[in-house]
Design a protein that fits this description.
Blueprint lengths: L11 H12 L6 E6 L8 E10 L7 E16 L4 E12 L2 H4 L4 H15 L4 E13 L11 E12 L4 H15 L22
Antiparallel strand pairs: 1-2, 2-3, 3-4, 4-6, 5-6
Helix pairs in contact: 1-4, 3-4
């Protein structure tokens, strides 16, 4: 869903970006949905949410995320361009992994390496990697302990290969959720898309 402007007013470059994003087909464990976009961050924007489901049990969600593409035709000094991608990714972790002091750096490397592997040129990347560990006490002491990783990031694309940026983000989601990478040359089944709003 394009924010703040009528479809007839959408710039051609943003329309091309939307077409590229909507044409991208990530691996089958990623279930994409187009959702209402934020209205105050840029004149034009589109938002996607994704759930990563277990390849063994499609009803089991093992990761989730949100990606927003912002566009300001006048450019934005902080972005160093006219487009900006903003993301939030969250997945469950094993406690041993959550305790690893190297985890935040590894989480950030997952983002940059996924962009590089899809040849999605970028600049001005920034973000945070957070690990959260929870244990229950008192009346709920019997509940299992849990740990999560959260990645919040943004970057400016250096090209118009927005499909590559979307696929890189989906790879980040899958890596964060603990799925093994898809071998080169392996074709995955078509992605299921839910309630796309266009």
């Amino acid at each position: 869903m394009v924010a703040r402007r009528e479809a007839d007013d959408v710039p051609e470059e943003f329309s091309r970006a939307l077409a590229a994003i909507r044409a991208a087909r990530p691996r089958s464990e990623v279930v994409l949905e187009e959702t209402p976009a934020p209205q105050r961050l840029a004149p034009f924007s589109v938002a996607l949410t994704a759930d990563v489901v277990s390849p063994v049990d499609p009803d089991l969600e093992i990761g989730t995320g949100r990606l927003v593409l912002l566009h300001d035709p006048a450019g934005h000094e902080a972005w160093q361009g006219t487009f900006r991608l903003v993301t939030y990714v969250r997945a469950e972790l094993e406690h041993e992994m959550a305790a690893d002091p190297l985890l935040p750096g590894v989480g950030w490397a997952w983002l940059t390496e996924s962009l590089d592997s899809h040849q999605a040129g970028f600049t001005a990347a920034s973000g945070t990697v957070t690990r959260v560990a929870s244990e229950s006490f008192g009346a709920i002491a019997g509940e299992a302990a849990s740990a999560q990783i959260e990645i919040r990031a943004s970057w400016t694309p250096l090209d118009d290969a927005f499909d590559a940026h979307l696929l890189a983000w989906c790879e980040l989601l899958c890596t964060t959720a603990g799925l093994p990478p898809v071998a080169p040359g392996v074709v995955t089944l078509p992605t299921r898309r839910r309630s796309a709003r266009r």
